[in-house]
């Protein structure tokens, strides 16, 4: 499994951090698709799915948007252009005929048809904007941007989110995810992860009281070594940023040194919400880039896409 490292110490580069974070997130999405909407599956069922070859699991055509954001940032030296990003996301998005159409899908479909993103995104839900978890998933890539301070990461995540999600909760979820991924990638507060300090830093970039309150609940859940059922029963697992991000962070902080265990925890908690294991997987992948992702977990297409994104973002880390 993923927790088997090389027999000798491995020096890692930012390319490795980005590659592992994005690749493991893609692997997690495949497992979540296969698991479906099972509520609190037992660990044995999850373990069985994690042993399936990736090639045997078909994923919806609309997946892979974190790669789009990573490639966008890499091509622009870490800068973001909302108009271009909206067009690139729309080009990379494909409708899933088996899924309900969510807010982000509506925006991207309209963008593809020529309507400005800012006009559609702000009109959703009676003018409130989308509060789903899609922007938080895309923010994984923002957190993998090198040589960027925490405040700048949070602000960039909000801007990237706004092309489809203008609701404050979705923006907070994106900022929190990006900051958490950045902390995992840089090993802050230190390699012996202090969950309380970690959550303090994440909460420091959250503007609204709702998500901050949920992060405090996560703090208590981690302190009391809660299991998936307790996480679902307290912070929930619905496909909103407010529920998704805390559940993903809880899974990561319960097992920050054990990628297999963290991913299994997230899959048990997901209940059909693919964003939870995707964010958790990105966190553990970024924190432990020296560990090898099993070949059976990945497809050549996923691996190549992750390497391409890693090269793009890795180039941002190189001195000018």
What does this structure look like?
With 320 residues, the protein is an all-alpha fold. It has a single domain (14-56, 63-316), classed as ADP-ribosylglycohydrolase fold (Orthogonal Bundle). The protein has 17 helices and no strands. It starts with 13 loop residues before the first helix and ends with a helix.
From the structure provided, what is the oligomeric state, counting identical versus distinct chains?
single chain
Number of strands: 0
Report on the biggest sheet: none
Structural class: mainly alpha
Strand content: under 5%
- State the helicity in percent bands: 55-70%
Task: Supply the number of helical segments.
Answer: 17
Tertiary shape: globular
Low-confidence stretches: 3-10
Please provide the ordered H/E string of secondary-structure elements.
Answer: HHHHHHHHHHHHHHHHH
CATH evolutionary superfamily: ADP-ribosylation/Crystallin J1
Brief sketch in words of this structure:
It comes from Catellatospora coxensis. This protein has 320 residues and is mainly α.
What is the strand and helix layout of this fold?
Elements lengths: L13 H22 L7 H8 L14 H11 L6 H11 L10 H10 L4 H5 L2 H4 L6 H10 L6 H13 L5 H19 L8 H9 L5 H15 L4 H7 L6 H14 L4 H12 L4 H13 L12 H17 L4
Helix pairs in contact: 1-16, 1-17, 2-15, 3-4, 3-8, 3-17, 4-5, 8-9, 8-10, 8-16, 9-10, 10-11, 10-14, 10-16, 11-12, 12-14, 13-15, 14-15, 14-16, 15-16
Pfam family, one: ADP_ribosyl_GH
Protein name: ADP-ribosylglycohydrolase
Organism: Catellatospora coxensis
Summary keywords:
320 residues, mainly alpha, ADP-ribosylglycohydrolase fold, 62% helix, globular, disordered N terminus
């Amino acid at each position: 499994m993923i927790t088997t490292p090389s027999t000798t110490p491995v020096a890692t580069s930012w390319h490795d951090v980005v590659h592992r974070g994005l690749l493991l997130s893609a692997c997690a999405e495949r497992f979540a698709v296969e698991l479906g909407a099972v509520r609190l599956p037992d660990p044995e069922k999850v373990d069985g799915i994690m042993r399936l070859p990736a090639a045997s699991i078909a994923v919806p055509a609309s997946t892979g948007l974190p790669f789009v954001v990573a490639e966008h940032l890499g091509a622009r030296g870490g800068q973001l252009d909302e108009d271009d990003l909206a067009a690139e996301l729309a080009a990379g998005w494909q409708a899933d005929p088996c899924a309900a159409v969510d807010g982000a899908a509506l925006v991207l479909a309209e963008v593809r048809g020529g309507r400005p993103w800012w006009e559609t995104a702000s009109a959703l839900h009676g003018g409130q904007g989308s509060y789903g978890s899609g922007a938080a998933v895309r923010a994984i890539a923002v957190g993998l941007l090198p040589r960027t301070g925490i405040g700048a990461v949070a602000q960039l995540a909000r801007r990237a989110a706004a092309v489809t999600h203008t609701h404050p909760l979705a923006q907070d979820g994106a900022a929190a995810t990006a900051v958490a991924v950045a902390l995992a990638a840089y090993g802050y507060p230190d390699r012996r992860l202090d969950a309380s300090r970690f959550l303090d830093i994440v909460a420091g970039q959250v503007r609204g009281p709702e998500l901050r309150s949920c992060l405090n609940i996560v703090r208590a859940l981690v302190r009391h070594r809660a299991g998936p059922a307790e996480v679902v029963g307290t912070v929930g697992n619905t496909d909103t940023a407010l529920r998704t991000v805390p559940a993903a962070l809880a899974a990561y902080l319960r097992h920050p040194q054990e990628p297999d265990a963290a991913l299994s925890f997230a899959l048990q908690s997901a209940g059909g919400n693919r964003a939870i294991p995707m964010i958790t997987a990105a966190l553990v992948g970024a924190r432990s880039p020296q560990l090898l992702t099993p070949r059976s977990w990945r497809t050549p297409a996923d691996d190549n896409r992750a390497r391409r994104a890693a090269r793009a973002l890795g180039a941002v880390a190189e001195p000018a």
